[in-house]
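Format is chain and fold; as here:
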Amino acid sequence: MEKRIAKELLNIKAVFLRPENPFTWASGIKSPIYCDNRLVLSAPEARKVVEQAIADTVKAKFPEAQMLMGTSTAGIAHAAIAASILDMPMGYVRGEAKSHGRNNRIEGRMEPGCKVVVIEDLISTGGSAIEVVEALREAGAEVLGIVSIFTYGMKKGLDRLAAANVVNYSLSNLDALVEVAAQEGYIDAAWKERILRFRDNPSDESWIK
């Protein structure tokens, strides 16, 4: 599944590899990869594969799940589609509480003790996903874990998730992606090791040279 999802993401350019002309993140870090899984939503064939894989992963890894919760904003649509496949309630968690009305941060009817799975599009350093998990826990949910579309597999993200006692299952990852990208001609095979070196130490730009 990891390679099939990677191929779909590459085909629709939801994940874009440009090691010879790196992207610059807001932090200033130069990266060979750019990920925008929102593009899955506008690609029907890829969307079918990805959303079914999310639903299948929820069913296999968290069979006791009672509700899906999307991260705002990227995870909302994926949570809604997967919940529809599973015939399960869904909601989402705002980045911050509304400043009007009922001042909700969590949208959707979620009872205390509800067994929840968070749906996220991308795991990098893990910060935003953990914030969502903590908000749900504070509201009384039992968060079983996260299902995400893609992960870089960065050590910082893995350590943060472990420290927060959060399990994440990603449909695909950087290791699978670079393998498929080299096989399909998206990148020269010589770049595989260098891209993974970036993942293991993003602040070290020696991979560019």
